[in-house]
Amino acid sequence: MTNTITQIIGYVATAIGTSLMLPQVVKFIRTKKADDVSFAMLVLYFLNCLLWAIYGILIGAIPVILCNVIAFIISIVQIALKLKYTANKTT
């Protein structure tokens, strides 16, 4: 029973953690603006996801791996959109 509860908590945290930055991606796409988001924050988020994914792999924690690999991909999308919309502003 304890293991089941632990797994449920892990997967719920995975769903929430993974979706955490999706509203920002949607906002970037809708507004075509990324001025109000710090590039440094995006880079730190990218590194955070990468390190947590590596940690999850090392300890064999599937929820940690899933959440952070997906979040890592989202962070790459965010950085790409930030660069794209920042570049569009200067042209």
What are the defining features of this structure?
91 residues, mainly alpha, Monooxygenase, 86% helix
Outline the structure in words.
By secondary structure, the protein is mainly alpha-helical. The chain has a single domain, classed as Monooxygenase (Up-down Bundle). 86% of the residues lie in helices and 0% in strands. It is built from four helices and no strands. The model has no long low-confidence stretch (mean pLDDT 89).
pLDDT < 50 runs, ≥5 residues: none
Question: How many whole angstroms does the radius of gyration measure?
Answer: 15 Å
Per CATH, which architecture? Up-down Bundle
Q: Any idea of the CATH class?
A: Mainly Alpha
Write down the overall mean pLDDT. Answer: 89
Number of domains: 1
Counting H and I runs of at least 4 residues, what is the number of helices?
4
Total number of beta strands: 0
Q: What is the SS-derived class?
A: mainly alpha
Task: Note the overall shape.
Answer: elongated
Reported by name, the CATH topology is: Monooxygenase
Query: How would you describe the oligomerization state of the chains in this entry?
Result: single chain
Query: Percentage of helical residues?
Result: over 70%
What sequence of helices (H) and strands (E) makes up the elements?
HHHH
**How far apart are the termini?**
59 Å
Report the major sheet.
Answer: none
